[in-house]
Amino acid sequence: HCISSAASDVYKRQVNVYVLDGDNVRHGLNKNLGFFPEDRKENIRRIGEVAKLFADAGTLVITSFISPYAEDRDTVRNSLEKGDFVEVFVKTSLAECELRDTKGLYKKARAGEIKEFTGISAPYEEPETPEIIVNTEKETKEESAEYIVQWLEDKGYIRKIVVS
């Protein structure tokens, strides 16, 4: 939710922005992929390639995915121009993720109905040096979004809004 709030704020600044997330990519472009390690790797690779195309067209792309492997995140980072990849770690404990389980996926994973589920039956490697960390257990989604947008302003990715 903080990612879509940040995207909305960026859009209001008349910046071309597009959000790629698991729902809009896994139901189309990557619908042939499962959740085994090799499929997750390919999912993130394809997302990186699509994001590159958007970036080449001058669009700020926000990708919102569970990308559990550091190697895959680094591969995408290294495929882009220096400075074009900003990693945002939305830090949330597994316990909190399970409490927020609106789709019932964690419950199904705990029951063994979903195999290779991140954090339950498959690993998650936390980012070691993300550019941005938001902690959704200590911040509201609005506070997290404001922090992301402020960081993007401070680093020159988007213009500051001047109120007169």
Notes on the structure:
The chain is of the alpha/beta class. 44% of the residues lie in helices and 11% in strands. The strands form 2 sheets. The chain has a two-stranded parallel ribbon. It has a two-stranded parallel sheet with strand order 3-4. The longest helix is centred in the first third of the chain and has 20 residues, at 37-56. The protein is globular. 18% of the residues are buried.
The largest pleated sheet is described as:
2 strands, parallel
Number of helices: 7
- Portion of residues within helices: 40-55%
Strand order of the largest sheet: 1-2
The string of secondary-structure elements, in order, is HEHHEHEHHEH
- Which stretches are low in confidence, meaning pLDDT under 50 for 5 or more residues running? none
Overall SS class: alpha/beta
Instruction: Please count the beta strands (DSSP E, at least 2 residues each).
Output: 4
Strand content: 5-15%
Radius of gyration: 16 Å
Q: In short, what is this structure?
A:
This protein has 164 residues and is an alpha/beta fold. Helix content is 44%, strand content 11%.
Topology:
Elements: H1 2-12, E1 17-21, H2 22-26, H3 37-56, E2 60-64, H4 70-79, E3 88-91, H5 94-99, H6 105-110, E4 132-135, H7 141-154
Parallel strand pairs: 1-2, 3-4
List keywords for this structure.
two-stranded parallel sheet, 164 residues, alpha/beta
